[in-house]
Amino acid sequence: MELLRQHCAIQEAEHLAALLRSRGIVTFISNKQTHVTGSFTTGANSVSLWVVLKNQFDDAEALINNEEHNVTTGLNEKELKTLEKQVQNFKSSTLDGLYHIVAGAVLIAIVVGGLVFGVHTWLA
Q1: Calpha distance 12→20 (Å, rounded)
Q2: CB-CB neighbours of 11 under 10 Å
Q3: For residues 74 and 21, is the Cβ–Cβ distance under 8 A?
Q4: Sign of torsion over alpha carbons 34, 40, 41, 44
Q5: Per-residue 3-state assignment (H helix, E strand, C coil) for 46-74
Q6: Which neighbouring-strand residues pair with 7?
Q7: Mean pLDDT throughout 70-82?
Q8: How many alpha carbons lie under 13 Å from residue 63 in its C-beta half-sphere?
Q9: Over the stretch 35-75, which tens digit does the pLDDT of each residue have?
Q10: Strand 27-30 relative to strand 47-51: parallel, antiparallel, unpaired?
Q11: Is the CB of residue 14 less than 8 Å from the CB of residue 29?
Q12: Minimal CA–CA distance to 51: which of 63, 39, 67?
């Protein structure tokens, strides 16, 4: 992934992302959710527009500077949808994995806490 632009307004980043996607360039906007809640609480005062596939960076830069640019590295709609589905599956599996880690840690904390309390009570 390569950083393409940083924007103060989400709308600017979304506009460019839509333009790039329409030509088959895969993008990602970071800090989107934290920017919405406000920079005071999260520290995020801008959103960043990233080009996901490094080989598309030059085309993305050229397209932003000239909307008539002929993109040579663009993906077709089927390829875009496949990649987007893979990203969604990855995000979902990552969240599931994180849930299991947190649930396991909580369970271990409860068991250890119970053992410490039980031993402390037994010794007292």
Answers
A1: 12
A2: 10
A3: no
A4: positive
A5: CEEEEECCHHHHHHHHHHHHCCCCCCCCC
A6: 47
A7: 93
A8: 24
A9: 455 554 545 568 889 998 999 999 999 999 999 999 999 99
A10: antiparallel
A11: yes
A12: 63
As a whole number of angstroms, the distance between CA 63 and CA 58 comes to 9
What amino acid is encoded at 99 in this protein? Y
Q: Tell which residue, 63, 71, 32, has the closest CA to residue 48.
A: 32
What tokens appear for 94 in the block? 């990552």
Q: For 45, list phi and psi in degrees, rounded to 5.
A: -110, 5
A 10 A CB-CB count for 21 gives 16
Residue 33 CA to residue 82 CA, distance in Å, equals 24
- Here the tokens at position 64 are 């932003």
Q: How confident is the model at residue 90 (pLDDT cuts 50, 70, 90)?
A: low
35 vs 5, 38, 54, 81, CA distance in Å? 15, 5, 25, 27
Q: What are phi and psi of 101, to 5 degrees?
A: -65, -45
